[in-house]
Design brief:
Blueprint lengths: L1 E6 L4 E8 L4 E8 L5 H5 L7 E5 L3 E2 L17 E3 L2 E2 L12 H7 L3 E4 L3 H11 L2 E6 L6 H10 L6 H4 L5 E3 L5 E6 L4 H8 L4 E6 L4 H6 L4 E4 L10 H12 L4 E4 L1 H8 L4 E18 L5 E13 L8 E7 L5 E6 L4 E4 L14 H9 L5
Parallel strand pairs: 3-4, 4-6, 5-7, 6-8, 11-12, 11-13, 13-14, 14-19
Antiparallel strand pairs: 1-2, 1-9, 2-8, 3-9, 10-12, 15-16, 15-17, 17-18, 18-19
Protein name: Carbamoyl phosphate synthase small chain
Pfam families: CPSase_sm_chain, GATase
Keywords: Amino-acid biosynthesis, Arginine biosynthesis, ATP-binding, Glutamine amidotransferase, Ligase, Nucleotide-binding, Pyrimidine biosynthesis
Length: 356
């Protein structure tokens, strides 16, 4: 069946329908990872977006037990070629069946290189995936321009508190759309991880007397999370060590007077170099975000930049002055890799008192 990807600038790509046949409007973003498509599909940070995979062949090892959440989150999936016959000893099904199961529409057979160049040159834009060959461009374009992702954190966060048992430090993990490997990375270091819904009051978390607090990744514009930001101000005022990743990093910065802005086309992939400003060492990182912290409005008495993106100079981490708090924009829990920066979890353990 034919399918069409219509961008808000009027560009139309024609391909083949994959997954669900429903029509969807979403923000179109691209990911440059060469592997790990299942982790991309199940990353809650993609809620409210349709993902273009720049690697040309997707699905060749099928669906494996490598999901980062209980279900996939993108609104749509866009690929050059979808493997119909996966081959892997861990394979449990095909992407085609996976997309149908979770009612996610997609399109294959389009020039994803040309599409990615448009998104890089003109910036991230909204689009529609449809199988309706009689679409009316004049009716569709205003709808595309009007679309916003909204407050998608409420959509992806857990509904109730969960505990991963451990014999070490007690860590409170705020779930703004957390990838499973954040909790796993802490748990394998012995931590008992308690996962809290995004809107849990700071008082409830502090009453549980955690040794450390972890702020997770998540989707959307951080400025939409006004209530969460107010709670993070209270967590900042405590003396509990805090480590934050991606959206958590942005929210902690906003809670302390910084600003954030949307990037032209975001950072999404497994090959982004970040520089540690203290040591000068460069790490290759996994990233998935469309917004960054604007450090110009951050009081240097509150926090200073700790990491910077080597490609475009944007902020990749903050070190808070006089506080046991550090935050990063990239993903040290990246799975599949690169795992260059997984040592940051050990740094967090040290902040809580070192190995037990």
């Amino acid at each position: 069946m034919k399918a069409f990807l219509i961008l808000e600038d009027g560009t139309v790509f024609t391909g083949t329908s994959i997954g669900s046949e429903k029509e969807v409007i979403s923000e179109i973003v691209f990911n440059t990872s060469m592997t790990g498509y299942l982790e991309v599909l199940t990353d809650p940070s993609y809620a409210g977006q349709a993902v273009v995979m720049t690697y040309p062949l997707i699905g060749n090892y099928g669906i494996t037990p490598d999901m980062e959440s209980e279900r996939p989150w993108p609104d749509g999936y866009i690929v050059r070629e979808l493997s119909r016959i996966p081959s892997n000893f861990r394979c449990q099904g095909t992407i085609q069946d996976f997309l149908i199961k979770y009612d996610i529409p997609g399109i294959a057979g389009i020039d994803t290189r040309a599409l990615t160049k448009i998104l890089r040159e003109k910036g991230t834009m909204n689009g529609m995936i449809t199988t309706n060959e009689n679409y009316n461009l004049e009716e569709i374009l205003p709808k595309l321009k009007a679309y916003t992702t909204g407050n998608v954190v409420d959509k992806v966060t857990c509904r109730e508190k969960k505990v991963l048992q451990g014999n070490g430090y007690k860590v409170a993990l705020m779930d703004f759309g957390a990838k499973k490997n954040i909790a796993r990375s802490l748990n394998k270091r012995g931590c008992q991880v308690t996962i809290y819904p995004a809107h849990t009051p700071a008082e409830e978390i502090l009453a549980d007397n955690p040794d450390g607090i972890m702020l997770s990744n998540g989707p959307g514009d951080p400025k939409e999370c006004t209530q969460i930001i107010q709670e993070l101000k209270k967590l900042y005022a405590s003396d509990v060590p805090i480590f934050a990743i991606c959206l958590g990093h942005q929210l902690m910065a906003l809670a302390n007077g910084a600003d954030s802005h949307k990037l032209k086309y975001g950072h999404r992939g497994g090959n982004h170099p970040v520089k540690d400003l203290e040591t000068g060492r460069v790490y290759i990182s996994s990233q998935n975000h469309g917004y960054v912290v604007d450090t110009d409005r951050l009081d240097e008495k509150v926090a200073v930049p700790a990491f910077v993106n080597v490609n475009d100079g944007t902020n990749e981490g903050l070190k808070y002055i006089g506080k046991n708090i550090f935050t990063v924009q990239f993903h040290p829990e990246a799975c599949p890799g690169p795992q260059d920066s997984s040592y940051l979890f050990d740094k967090f353990i040290d902040m809580m008192g070192g190995k037990r």
